[in-house]
Amino acid sequence: MRDQLLVQAKRIVIKIGSSLIASRAEGLRPQHIERLADEIASLRTQGREVLVVSSGAIVSGIRKLQLKEYPKHLPIKQAAAAVGQSRLMWAYEKAFERLNIQVAQILLTHQDLADRRRFLNARHTLAALIGFGIVPIINENDTVAVDEIRVGDNDTLASEVAHLADADLLVILSDVDGLYTDDPRRNPSATLIPLIKEITPDIERLAGASSTFEGTGGMATKLRAAKKVSEYGIPTLVLNGERTELLPTVLRGGPGGSLFLARERRLNSRKHWIAFTLRSRGHVHLDQGAVDALTTRGRSLLASGILKVTGSFEAGDPVSCLAPGGKEFAKGLVNVSSDLLDHMKGLKTADIHERFGPQEYEEVIHRDNLVIL
């Protein structure tokens, strides 16, 4: 199963971690970028379509600005990104130009992905670039991003791009071999797990945080990315990008890395967008009857099953649905504002009509706009 998935994947999103192509001491490492460009070019000769999500802009800028540590304040981060991003793209441009491959720069924020029209526009742009045989080089727009519009880490961005591009496979290149049974730095007998069929709580506990200057994530962010794209039917391969020729070897069916399988039940693109791209503006706390109606009977959410409303939201905003114990189990686009819903909660439809008059929607969240998580 593993070999077949890797060999047959045609459209591949490859995330390249900062530590592979940049360091505080050296800045950008052009020879590393050239080597990865060679490997990507070899994949293209096999008929593969490749999109690259690349970190490294901020670390490159840190070197150029001669900063002694990773910046803690947003304006300094943005300044480093502004300086480093152009250098990063120029390095990719030169590395691929010698192979007669054109590249294109795409910078995204969470806002670009959260707005459905902009999401679809970005999808069409990527499709057009791929059609022209161009390799998109994608990064977060760190120069302008603030907390409200940040995607976060580039593992998360890569998962969003995999969905955006309707990829067959997400590859996360890092400075680790994959997921181990234990931390190999502390336990020499830890072994690499080549195939993970499902990301369970036990699997999640094996993930640790990043311990490098260059990296902003760790195995935990890679597992979150794999979990996201698995809902859209996309498997994820975590691989050591420092090992020469390992990427093309593994994609030909050779050993190496950890492959996380996708879930068999695949969300459609719009529901995946609701579940994993949008950020909740509030919460609705439901009684057990409403939870059962949504999870087992495929119903829409009505006001009668709502016990409590928290947060401030307007009609059309994403909200989280919480079970009696407080656990989020669903997410959807709400049809009424939080202020109105706070007055409507617990009421039956007839009572709502009597008190507030006819409403545009009877459902608080229609089933078509609701995702069970």
CATH class of the largest domain: Alpha Beta
The biggest sheet, with number of strands, parallel, antiparallel or mixed sense and barrel status, is: 8 strands, mixed
Total of helices: 15
**Cα gyration radius (Å):** 23 Å
N-to-C series of helices and strands: HEHEEHEHHEHHEHEEHHEHEHEHEEEHHE
Helical residues, percent: 25-40%
Q: State the shape.
A: globular
What is this structure's SSE topology?
Elements: H1 2-8, E1 11-16, H2 18-21, E2 22-23, E3 27-28, H3 30-44, E4 49-54, H4 57-65, H5 74-97, E5 103-108, H6 110-114, H7 116-131, E6 135-140, H8 154-164, E7 169-174, E8 195-196, H9 201-205, H10 219-230, E9 236-240, H11 246-251, E10 258-260, H12 269-277, E11 282-286, H13 288-295, E12 306-311, E13 318-322, E14 328-333, H14 338-344, H15 349-356, E15 370-372
